[in-house]
Write a structure and sequence with these properties.
Helix content: 25-40%
Keywords: Signal
Shape: globular
Number of strands: 7
Radius of gyration: 17 Å
Largest sheet: 5 strands, mixed, barrel
Oligomer: single chain
Family: Belongs to the gamma-glutamylcyclotransferase family.
Organism: Aspergillus clavatus (strain ATCC 1007 / CBS 513.65 / DSM 816 / NCTC 3887 / NRRL 1 / QM 1276 / 107)
Protein name: Gamma-glutamylcyclotransferase AIG2-like domain-containing protein
Order of helices and strands: HEHEEEEHEEHH
Strand order of the largest sheet: 1-5-2-6-7
InterPro entries: AIG2-like (IPR045038), AIG2-like_dom (IPR009288), GGCT-like_sf (IPR036568)
Strand content: 25-35%
Amino acid sequence: MNLLIFVFVLFQVRAPPDYLAQRDEPVDFPPAFPVYYFFYRTLTAPAQVKRILELPEEPQLREAEVFGYAVAKWGDYPALINGKQGDVVTGSAYLVRSAEEAQKLLYYETNAYEVADCWIYFKDEKEPKEAGGRVFMYAGDAQALLEQRFDRKLWSRQMGGKLG
């Protein structure tokens, strides 16, 4: 067995169950709130957003889409990656009102995802029709993800330099 694969498997066996959700360092968001976040897949359910953000009631999400992205599978999870020109991902957008809300979303997404700027196009009749916003993108090697092979970039990110 390849030594690198052996070390990775050994780590998975010995890692705490919530390892992927752990964060060693706080993330500093710019004080530019409120800002729209584009959600795809699981976060398009208002009940899920309510639970994660600990809101008193289900939030109003706006149907939206982003261009130039694609969704790939990371195990059982969807992962947004850069796509081709003309690719469209549909989902919803939520107006994140504070750094605290943004931090809760970041914690939920784990360090397998990173926040990126995006341009959001709304599909409803409300204003604004489009807005600059943020989205959670896969933090690893998108090509490795698509080829379903070991992702050294994501592995290094999750290890945080702890193994050398």
